Each structure stands twice: as structure tokens, then as C-alpha cells.
């Protein structure tokens, strides 16, 4: 089904994907000086794909690689089929994670390494999964090293999913998710 039709189903539930979530997502990126979202489709597909980790948390599912925060894995049907409060919970979890990611990037002087939205979308997933648990020093160092060394150019989706799964292993260094 076409994206616009799915967004209509959200509107019927009293959810406006754009004003309640996607516009805030893009505005937050721009506030921190990231202008990755200059193509209209990215303003929808990237924020939508970034809901995948929150979807897995809300639905209490184990992570599946096809729920990675990449555009091709955007789950418009699954998100549209959630109850209103679940959609709002996904929006909240993701926007809070985005805020934490951007602050982490700023506090650790990583902006020069963040050359693609992939860095941010993957980190959002990690921060959604970590929840309110703090990172310890080894986890922070692992994330910083990841930001400085990961490459996304010319990779198939299977490799992108693998990179994301590897990043998620950071959360298991010592912290556990607090729900």
C-alpha cells in the first residue's frame, strides 16, 4: 500500500505522523547542524525507519535484522497497525533517543565524523534499546570508536544490517536495558 494511504490510517487514529513526529525529527537534526534530510522522501523514510527499534521495544520483540533503522526496512504497515498509544510511545522513545544521540555526538566532539544520516539512525536504535540505562566508559569508548571508523559507502542492505547488529552489541558490554 502506498505511504500516503498508510498515513491516512494514522490520521484516522488521531495521529499526524508529520507534525507529531517526522517534522520534530528533522527539526532536531537541523538544530544540531545536520542537514541530511534535504530530499522529501528522506524526511519520511528515515524517521519512519528509525521507529523500528521502538516498535520492537513496544511490541516486546527480540531484535530482527530486517527491523534495522534503514530506509528499506521502514515498517509503515506495522506502525500503522499499532494502537494510538503504542504509536505515540514509539514516537516518544525515538525522539528521546534522537536527543540523546545528538547530545552524545556534541559532547564527544564527533560531528566531523557524522557524514551520513546512517550514523545517527543506527545510534538512535542503540539508544532506544539501552533506554534509560547509562553507558559506562567502555561502552562510550566503543561508540566513539565506531563513529570514527564505520564506513557506509556502497554497501548492500545485508551489510548495513550487519553493521547495525554489531553496534547493538555495545549495549551488552555491561549495561542492561531498563524499561
Can you give a write-up of this model?
The protein is globular, with a radius of gyration of 15 Å. By secondary structure, the chain is an all-alpha fold. The termini are far apart. The model is unreliable at 174-179 (pLDDT under 50). It contains 9 helices and no strands. It has helices at 3-12, 17-31, 42-49, 52-58, 76-80, 84-107, 117-130, 137-149, 157-168. The protein has one domain (3-172). 60% of the residues lie in helices and 0% in strands. Helix 2 packs across helix 3 (42-49), helix 4 packs across helix 6 (84-107) and helix 6 packs across helix 7.
Strand content: under 5%
Number of strands: 0
Distance between the termini: 33 Å
> Which overall shape is indicated by the principal axes computed on the Cα atoms?
globular
Low-confidence stretches: 174-179
Secondary-structure element order, as H and E? HHHHHHHHH
What is the helix tally? 9
Please state the CA-atom Rg, rounded to the nearest Å: 15 Å
Please estimate the helix content. Answer: 55-70%
Main β sheet profile: none
Mean pLDDT equals: 86
Label the structural class: mainly alpha
Integer count of domains: 1
Oligomer: single chain
Amino acid at each position: 500500500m502506498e505511504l500516503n494511504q498508510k498515513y491516512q490510517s494514522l490520521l484516522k487514529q488521531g495521529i499526524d505522523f508529520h507534525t507529531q513526529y517526522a517534522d520534530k525529527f528533522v527539526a532536531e537534526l537541523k538544530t544540531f547542524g545536520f542537514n541530511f534530510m534535504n530530499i522529501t522522501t528522506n524526511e519520511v523514510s528515515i524517521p519512519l525507519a528509525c521507529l523500528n527499534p521502538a516498535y520492537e521495544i513496544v511490541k516486546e520483540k527480540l531484535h530482527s535484522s530486517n527491523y534495522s533503522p534503514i530506509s528499506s526496512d521502514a515498517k509503515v504497515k506495522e506502525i500503522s497497525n499499532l494502537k494510538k498509544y503504542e504509536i505515540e510511545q514509539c514516537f516518544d522513545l525515538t525522539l528521546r533517543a534522537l536527543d540523546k544521540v545528538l547530545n552524545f555526538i556534541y559532547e564527544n566532539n564527533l560531528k566531523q565524523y557524522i557524514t551520513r544520516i546512517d550514523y545517527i539512525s543506527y545510534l538512535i536504535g542503540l539508544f532506544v534499546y539501552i533506554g534509560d540505562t547509562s553507558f559506562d566508559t567502555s561502552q562510550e569508548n566503543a561508540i566513539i570508536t565506531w563513529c570514527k571508523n564505520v564506513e557506509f559507502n556502497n554497501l548492500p542492505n545485508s551489510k548495513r544490517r550487519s553493521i547495525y547488529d554489531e553496534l547493538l552489541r555495545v549495549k551488552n558490554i555491561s549495561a542492561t536495558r531498563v524499561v
